[in-house]
Every structure is written in C-alpha cells, then in structure tokens.
C-alpha cells in the first residue's frame, strides 16, 4: 500500500524541489525518496524510473513556464515582457530550468504537448512582428537561443563583470526587437 500522501503528482513536486536544490544533473530517485521520507522502492509505485520522473518534471516545468509568460503578453508587454518573465522563471527554478530545452521523443506525447503550448505563447509574442512561416520559425529559434544563452551564462556565473546584468539583458532584448523588425 502506498504511503499516505505520496502520489505521482507529489513525487513530481518533490522531484522539482530536489532539482532546484541540487541541480538537474543531481536529480536522482534516491534523493527524491530521501526528501519524501520513504525507501527508494516506494517511488516505483508512482514513477517508472528516473527518466520517467524527469519527463514528468519537464512537462510540469514547461507548463509553469508557459503560465509565467502568458500574463506579460496579456498585459501587452510583448517581447520585452516575455523575456523578463522568462528570465525571472529561470532564476526562480535554476535546477529544473534545463528541462525546458529537452525535445520530446516519439513516445512522449505529454512532453510534446507541453513544449508545443510553450511555443504557441512565444509565437504569440512574435505576432507583433507580422512574421509567418519560415520567418516565424527563425524568429522563435532566435529568441529562444538568446534567452537560453543569457539564462545559462547568468546561472553559471558568467556575468561577473562590474556592469549591471539587468542593463545588459535589456539591451539584448532591444537588439532582439530590432532583429525581429528587420526579419519582418
């Protein structure tokens, strides 16, 4: 019988907390079991293995990132608002942020759906530029690459110069805006 209160959703929640504490690479079922106060075999009643848990965490993280971006677009903040919300989310969830760049495999429809929903939001921010087809694909790739690169360098301590990181970020977003206008 499963321990009271332990469900697949609770295991994912605990996995998210472990990942944010120790990093994506440090996420193990043993660490989650310890956090849950159960023995490792107890987790197998709720998740198949560590890859199953990572996929579930990726789905949740993509859903949460999408939810964090939507209000900026609803407020009409466009690319700048989306970029700020993206950075804020990544800083708040440093251990599981790497899950958002994982591409879904053919046997991961939930991950594909969550990734697709996030891309729809990013596509929505590109609507202001009137981009379609290949230009839209390029724009989304450019924006995701720039944001991910900034997040990765920021998280890794790559911006230790005296200059304000926030100012650099705003200038990058301004440059992205200009680049997207040029694409249109």
Automatic annotation (TrEMBL):
Residues 28-47 bind DNA. The keyword Magnesium does not apply. Keywords: DNA-binding, Transcription, Transcription regulation. Pfam families: TetR_C_33 (PF13305). InterPro entries: Homeodomain-like_sf, HTH-type_TetR-like_transc_reg, HTH_TetR, MT1864/Rv1816-like_C, Tet_transcr_reg_TetR-rel_C_sf. One of its GO terms (molecular function) is transcription cis-regulatory region binding. Residues 5-65 form the HTH tetR-type domain. This is TetR/AcrR family transcriptional regulator. It comes from Georgenia ruanii. PROSITE patterns: HTH_TETR_2. The keyword NADP does not apply.
């Amino acid at each position: 019988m499963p321990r009271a209160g332990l469900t697949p959703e609770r295991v994912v929640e605990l996995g998210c907390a472990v990942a944010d504490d120790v990093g994506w690479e440090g996420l193990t079922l043993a660490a989650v079991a310890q956090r849950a106060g159960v023995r490792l075999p107890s987790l197998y009643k709720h998740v198949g293995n560590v890859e199953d848990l990572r996929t579930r965490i990726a789905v949740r993280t993509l859903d949460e990132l999408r939810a964090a971006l939507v209000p900026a677009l609803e407020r009409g903040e466009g690319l700048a608002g989306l970029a700020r919300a993206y950075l804020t989310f990544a800083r708040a969830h440093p251990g599981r942020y790497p899950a958002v760049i994982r591409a879904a495999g053919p046997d991961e429809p939930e991950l594909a759906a969550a990734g697709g929903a996030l891309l729809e939001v990013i596509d929505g921010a590109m609507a202001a530029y009137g981009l379609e087809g290949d230009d839209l694909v390029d724009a989304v790739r450019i924006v995701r690459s720039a944001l991910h690169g900034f997040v990765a360098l920021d998280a890794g301590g790559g911006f230790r110069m005296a200059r304000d990181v926030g100012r650099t970020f705003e200038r990058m977003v301004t440059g992205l805006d200009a680049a997207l206008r040029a694409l249109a």
